[in-house]
Every structure is written in structure tokens, then in C-alpha cells.
Amino acid sequence: MPRLAVYALIVCVLAIAAAVVSFTQGSWLGILWILIVGVSSNMAWYYLRRGKVARAATAEQG
Q1: From the centroid of its chain, how far is CA 59?
Q2: 33, 18 in Cβ contact below 8 A?
Q3: 1 near 48, Cβ under 8 Å?
Q4: Torsional class of 26: left (φ above 0), alpha (ψ -120 to 50), beta (otherwise)
Q5: Integer Cα distance of 53 and 62 in angstroms
Q6: Host domain of residue 43
Q7: pLDDT for 16-32, tens place per residue?
Q8: Close Cβ partners of 28 (under 8 Å, ≥ 6 residues apart)
Q9: Where does the chain cross the membrane (predicted)?
């Protein structure tokens, strides 16, 4: 698993936790955390897919 994908997943999990805490405290700041979850999950998916394509390309060459 590519390192950037792992970091993006960690950010995603932490942002989910922050959103839950924000909403339970009655703060609307949780909406921003939800947006960060969306961006970080897309980044994680992108880097996972990019790593898969790179592995397939190296397998074809070697």
C-alpha cells in the first residue's frame, strides 16, 4: 500500500472522529470535517489506484 494512501486514510479516520465530536457538541464545524473526509478519501482512492497501476506496469516490463 503506498505511503501517501496510508496517510490519507489516517487523515480520513481522524476527520471522521473530529466530525463526530463536533456534531455531538452541537457545533456546525463538523460540516468542514465532513468535507475534509471527502477530500482525503478521494486522495486515498487515487493513490491506491495509482499504486496498483504502477505495480501492473512494472510487472509487464519485468
Answers
A1: 26
A2: yes
A3: yes
A4: left
A5: 14
A6: 3-61
A7: 999 999 999 999 999 99
A8: 22
A9: 28-48
